[in-house]
Write a structure and sequence with these properties.
The chain has 328 residues and is α+β, with helices and mostly antiparallel strands. It has twelve helices and seven strands.
Length: 328
């Protein structure tokens, strides 16, 4: 249905085209509000002086106001379990543990590929027209992430008590400090004080940890495919805002950017967004086409985060691809 206030909606939406740092300074008066917006906008993994970086802050901020940022009881795997269960209830069959190396291994009239352009080039081979292949070869991937999973003896002892009530926490200090960290990752440099995204789901979902214990995970952005170990830097950022945190750590499991790709082949160089989401590639992923989900090969579709609307826990890439595929 059409919006009740279309002009207000347009005005709101136009702000999403701004660079995040410029919008934060124009809209918010206090440094805490500016820093809060910067932390949300940094989900874009773009420099906060880049056009369109504000879109992530505007969209995710609106979601937070409307419904919060919930976590799935039992972990995000429960989403996949529910989808798989529904698919199987429709007589669908799921096969795992099999790497598809060529489309010849999937003799079906319709194939939806949850892969990056690099992988589609490998498995589709000469079936793709030369011009389309050249466009896929120009697809750009962005910074990677370094991730830590923590086993904790106690909840994280935040200095600011209100932070204990947040499932997702952005650690970065000021707007300018967060902007500097994101600029460094995009320029191939390592930040001494990285912007850290942290989730402390066990505070709200006891099934995430043994009785009386807690878990958390955190990551920071690093240059594409960087092998750097950011454990000390991430620990220091958490300790900065939660003195005594290190004393709570029972164990850590870490993944560098290359190890993230080994864990999930779609995370090229540790890029969890399926490709850069800047102004040049946000609306043209994976290539400029009226139907970005369809390839020139009949029955072959893209459904990964390398298609619109890009990275995020929303499932819309697959939904749009499936809708187009069903229309033929």
């Amino acid at each position: 249905m059409p919006p009740r206030h279309p002009l207000s909606l347009v005005k709101f939406g136009l702000r999403a085209l701004w660079p995040a740092r410029a919008l934060a300074k124009a809209v918010f008066r206090g440094e805490p509000a500016r820093a809060a917006f910067a932390g949300i906008a940094a989900h874009s993994i773009l420099p906060l002086d880049a056009p369109l970086s504000a879109a992530f802050g505007v969209t995710l901020g609106a979601n937070a106001h409307a419904s919060g940022w919930p976590v799935a009881k039992g972990g995000s795997q429960r989403f996949m379990d529910a989808l798989a269960s529904y698919f199987q209830s429709l007589d669908g069959e799921i096969q795992t543990g099999w790497e598809v190396k060529t489309l010849d291994e999937v003799p079906a009239p319709i194939v939806l590929c949850d892969v990056t352009p690099r992988q589609l080039l490998r498995i589709a081979g000469e079936r793709l027209p030369a011009g389309y292949r050249r466009q896929l070869e120009r697809f750009r991937h962005g910074p990677g992430v370094f991730k830590i999973d923590y086993a904790l003896s106690d909840p994280i002892p935040w200095t600011a008590a209100a932070v204990a009530r947040a499932g997702t926490v952005h650690l970065g200090g000021t707007l300018d400090e967060i902007a500097a960290s994101e600029a460094a990752a995009n320029r191939g440099r390592i930040s001494d004080r990285p912007y850290v995204l942290l989730v402390q789901a066990s505070r709200f979902d006891p099934s995430r940890a043994p009785a009386g214990k807690h878990t958390a995970w955190a990551y920071c952005h690093v240059p594409h495919n960087a092998e750097v170990d950011m454990t000390a830097a991430i620990d220091a950022q958490i300790e900065r805002f939660a003195p005594g945190f290190r004393d709570c750590v029972l164990a850590r499991a870490t993944k560098t950017a290359p190890q993230m790709e080994l864990w999930n082949a779609n995370y090229i160089g540790g890029d969890i967004n399926g490709g850069v989401q800047d102004a040049l590639q946000h609306y043209t992923r994976p290539v400029p086409r009226l139907n970005p989900y369809a390839t020139p090969v009949k029955g072959l579709y893209f459904c990964s985060s390398s298609t619109p609307p890009g990275g995020g826990v929303h499932g819309m890439c697959g939904w749009h691809a499936a809708t187009r595929a069903l229309k033929g």
